[in-house]
Amino acid sequence: MNWRAIWTIYKHEMSRTRRTLAQSVVSPVISTCLYFVVFGSAIGSRITEIEGVSYGAFIVPGMIMLSLRPLSVTNASFGIYFPKFTGTIYELLSAPISFIEIVIGYVGAAATKSTCLALIMLATAHLFVPLEILHPFWMLLFMVLTATTFSLLGFIIGIWAINFEQLQIIPLLVITPLAFLGGTFYSITMLPPTWQTVSLFNPVVYLVSGFRWSFYEISDVSVGVSLGMIAVFLGTCLIVVWYIFKTGYRLKS
Amino acid sequence: MMISVSHLSKTYDDGFQALKGIDLEIGRGEIFALLGPNGAGKTTLISVICGIVTPSGGRVTVDGHDIISNYRATRSLIGLVPQELTTDAFETVGHVVRFSRGLFGKKPDAAHIEKVLKDLSLWDRRDNQIMTLSGGMKRRVMIAKALAHEPRVLFLDEPTAGVDVELRKEMWQVVHDLRASGVTIILTTHYIEEAEEIADRVAVINHGEIILVEDKAELMRKLGKKQLELELHATLKAVPKKLSQHDLVLAADGLRLIYTYDTHAERTGITALLKDLHEAGIRFRDLQTTQSSLEEIFVSLVRSEP
Ligand SMILES: Nc1ncnc2c1ncn2[C@@H]1O[C@H](COP(=O)(O)OP(=O)(O)OP(=O)(O)O)[C@@H](O)[C@H]1O
Ligand SMILES: [Mg+2]
């Protein structure tokens, strides 16, 4: 393992954020506030609590997940798309590093960034509602796993994309709908039975459910199943990345 | 041999064969010029050796290591300055150069980075963003990046494109210093004068094939050959016996005598030839001399290709 190269890529990617630090931090804080104003106050005044948890507190895990996923995807996809776009990718391809090292560097940095932002959102949410986290370790694990999985997905999108439109279309077409239909602002048990079944095919349901469990010990599906599904999703992304690098897909001619 | 290429071929996805069985050996510490017109396959060849393009067939070793099975060893040895100016516009000069070094797994070395930047007159610009630099400056940054990890082989893909005389001189200075420290340098160019100016050996490549590899001295010797053409008053059937000690050829029409001589030689033999001609009673109406330039050799080589 060329650890120094991994560290170099990681540091480079993190320093890119430092340049735009203000906007990176301000935007999640603002969106958190907006969620609370819109969902917490408007809907929360009608639905007072779900399964014994106040509605405001209930939506916090889903809300964090809602931002964490697209952030991870965008961070990672831009991270690798950019060198492809400017041509500096030649340096990555001609350096004595393996593809795994490139992935660790880029995906690690993207996941770190989005995890940090998720933690900022959590802190902001704490200003609005009293939060108790029953299982902080699991909370963090779910957060990191989700960030990693979606950063991997973003990395794949960044390699696949050949223009900026393609770079944005996947998050828009796939991830946002999945997120909204994934029990972010409600418990899926509140849905009609058919839609409950449909929801079970949505990977986001498992992420939100497991994450919410780590806060309040309430979940739509069991924690074991949540973890299993995340593992399946993560594994799928890893296989795709491995295939990309084995064949040099869209990287080497 | 530092670099050894055998039967290397590359067919791109669209079916275009850019390299057709290249065989090439490049010695340790030499300055090697790859000379060829647009689309000849120079960049493709370099890209394969550096790991950017996957070869379709054949084998390449760098310092004895295979570029595929032992890519970490070969790539650590190589520094590449690509043809295109591609840099991270928002980063500073110092940052990208240090980044390159780190990417190659080398320990940070402020002294080395400082030396590289100073050699390329970039030291004062180390904290400037790259987008604020001129094209020539960016070219220097590309070179600095390639040298950041102390490579033993340096590839310069058309280093003089868009570069002024001053920078070119500076660049050749850097190249000579590197060679003096044992670095092997391979550069591509469209221009013969450039190859002549700096290379030890020259390969001519066209349509994905190497059509000539020669020591520059040998090329210069060919270049040094001149021909003196004498237009005669009367036709000759053969070169007269009296003139046999001169290197003379009679043209097919019998009206022209062609004398080949070496401009680098101590004596060209022209005086003696003219004296002997006079004694043999051969009169001529006109004379002209022609030089076969490297350019001509090159053009005729490239033209004769299908
Ligand atoms: N990715 C690619 N896909 C298909 N064909 C390609 C690709 N890259 C290069 N080629 C073709 O391969 C041939 C050789 O290209 P290459 O860039 O190696 O030439 P070159 O000698 O470097 O030319 P130049 O002097 O213009 O830089 C050209 O005909 C080019 O069109
Ligand atoms: Mg080229």
Secondary structure blueprint with pairings:
The complex is a heterodimer of chains A (253) and B (306).
Chain A lengths: L2 H17 L1 H23 L5 E2 L2 E2 H32 L2 H6 L4 H30 L7 H25 L3 H17 L12 H7 L3 H14 L6 H25 L6
Helix pairs in contact in A: 1-5, 2-3, 2-5, 3-5, 3-6, 3-7, 3-9, 5-6, 6-9, 6-10, 9-10
Chain B lengths: L2 E9 L5 E10 L4 E5 L6 H9 L6 E6 L2 E2 L4 H7 E4 L11 H11 L6 H10 L15 H13 L5 E5 L7 H16 L3 E6 L2 H7 L2 E6 L2 E7 H9 E8 L15 E3 L5 E7 L7 H11 L3 E8 L2 H10 L3
Parallel strand pairs in B: 3-8, 3-9, 6-7, 7-8
Antiparallel strand pairs in B: 1-2, 1-4, 4-5, 9-10, 11-13, 11-14, 12-13
Helix pairs in contact in B: 3-5
The structure holds adenosine-5'-triphosphate and magnesium ion.
Adenosine-5'-triphosphate (ATP) binds next to helix 1 of chain B.
Average pLDDT, all residues of chain B:
89
Number of strands of chain A: 2
Series of secondary-structure elements of chain A, N-terminal to C-terminal: HHEEHHHHHHHH
Name the structural class of chain B: alpha/beta
Rg of chain B to the nearest angstrom?
Answer: 25 Å
Structural notes for this entry:
The complex is a heterodimer of chains A (253) and B (306). Helices cover 77% and strands 2% of the residues of chain A. Chain A has ten helices and two strands; from the N terminus they run ααββαααααααα. Chain A has helices at 3-19, 21-43, 55-86, 89-94, 99-128, 136-160, 164-180, 193-199, 203-216, 223-247, and strands spanning 49-50, 53-54. Chain A has a two-stranded antiparallel sheet. The model of chain A has no long low-confidence stretch (mean pLDDT 86). Chain B is built from ten helices and 14 strands. Chain B has helices at 42-50, 71-77, 93-103, 110-119, 135-147, 165-180, 192-198, 216-224, 270-280, 294-303, and strands at 3-11, 17-26, 31-35, 57-62, 65-66, 78-81, 153-157, 184-189, 201-206, 209-215, 225-232, 248-250, 256-262, 284-291. In chain B, helix 3 runs parallel beside helix 5 (135-147). The longest helix of chain B has 16 residues, at 165-180. Chain B is elongated. The two termini of chain B are 32 Å apart. The complex binds adenosine-5'-triphosphate (ATP) and magnesium ion. Magnesium ion binds next to helix 1 of chain B. The site of magnesium ion (MG) has 4 residues of chain B, from helix 1.
